[in-house]
Specification:
Layout: E1 3-6, H1 14-19, H2 27-41, E2 47-50, H3 59-68, E3 72-76, H4 88-91, E4 96-98, E5 100-104, E6 110-114, E7 129-132, H5 139-155, E8 161-163, H6 178-182
Parallel strand pairs: 1-2, 2-3, 3-4, 6-7, 7-8
Antiparallel strand pairs: 5-6
Length: 185
């Protein structure tokens, strides 16, 4: 069993194609690529943490997609998920639904999971990693990268926070392990 992470899948969200310059001609092509990539990477018993904004479709179509995806799914809610999560059938497809989560790994190291970036996340001085989404490849992501740079350059403290949005080059529309995400730098 492995842990995988992904954010901002935005299934069915045609505007995301243009907003992120996603390399797909249609939303159907986009959705199929994400589902295929997901199921090639994630096994049935793997744990997958979705860091928000899973779908723009209605609940029925979203249920169909989520059922087709491998892994034990955990949803860290994003700003586009609240309306969909009123559906109890959709809720039942997730092992948990929360706004924030901390995973403690071996040797006291851990991961802070949130849809939103948190520059001063819990235990950031102690080697913990923060995985987030929400900001896509926008000016807000550039701001978070600047925070990381300043933390390291001015204060000699590493800032291990990483955008897990599908559109990031190192994510390539595929769920990734923490090691894969962290090693891209």
């Amino acid at each position: 069993m492995a842990y995988y992470f992904i954010a901002d899948t935005h299934f069915g969200h045609e505007n995301a194609l243009a907003f992120d310059n996603r390399p797909f001609k249609t939303i159907e092509e986009h959705d199929k690529a994400l589902i295929d990539n997901w199921n090639q990477a994630v096994g049935l018993e793997d744990e997958i943490f979705i860091l928000g904004d899973i779908s723009w479709y209605n609940a029925s179509k979203t249920i169909e997609i989520v059922k087709s995806l491998n892994g034990v799914k955990h949803l860290i809610m994003g700003n586009h998920d609240k309306k969909l999560l009123k559906n109890r059938v959709l809720q039942s497809l997730f092992a948990e639904i929360t706004a924030y989560k901390e995973l403690t790994l071996s040797e006291g190291k851990g991961i802070v999971l949130s849809h939103y970036p948190i520059p001063c996340f819990n235990n950031h001085y102690y080697g913990w990693v923060h995985l987030y989404g929400h900001v896509h490849k926008s000016f807000e992501w550039n701001m978070m990268e600047r925070v990381k740079f300043e933390m390291e350059a001015l204060y000699d403290k590493s800032c291990l926070m990483f955008n897990c949005g599908v559109m990031m080059d190192y994510m390539d529309y595929t769920p990734r392990t923490m090691e894969e995400i962290v090693s891209h730098t």
